[in-house]
Predict the structure.
Amino acid sequence: MFSSQDDRIFVVGFALCGHQWSILVFDRGGSIVSSSFNIHQSPEDFLRCLLALSFGHDSLLGYDTSISPRTYSPHRVLKLETPTFNMRMIIDGLLFHSDEVFGRGTTVHLCSKVGVEEDEYFVVKDSWVDTTREPSEAETLRILHDIPHVPRLIASANLEVVHPVSHQQVPDSTETTRDFLLQHNTNKWLAGCFDARVHNRLVTQPAGVEICWFSSRWEFLSVLIDALTGESENFLADLDCYVY
């Protein structure tokens, strides 16, 4: 599901083994497995879980509601709302999508502004970042904003979701679900060790195509030269940061 659905945040389901069943949750931080239940001793709980998976809201089933579903419109819309940035963008293409279950789960879309006739494209990168690692990608791009051949940061924000119980906006983090489950029923859930990751959305410019689609050898070499030039200048800027 993660590899084929670019708007998938987590996967929830249940496992059946004879008369026993368990609830399973997989996200970018790891897996959560409930203790087993007897389907005959708790038929109402099993039916409730089945109905939730069949008719539940998209946000409860693991979909990213900031991206419009494929079935509603031929053009999918992605939105990012921050105190200083509010933009709705049309998804024009998928540049990269990680097929890994755990970890950053990076997805990169090529997008354009909604309602703008001119072709102005953006690169929108979704990833589940480890908040303990510093500096963040956005902070690094802010430091390198004056260096040629480095992507220009347009906006960056950690996304939020509606809590299933309190109905308040909370960070879209792998900790949110685990904190709720372990606080309410410590004995029936086996969370174990997991990575604490936050859903981050990064918007940059300029936007281009993959390097494998070069039109000539000269274009390919010029791109490599620009990349190497930018890397060397980034290295020198990094030294300046440490010196001063």
Summary: DSSP finds four helices and 13 strands in the chain. Helices lie at 43-55, 137-143, 174-184, 217-243. Residues 53 and 61 are 7 Å apart (CA to CA).
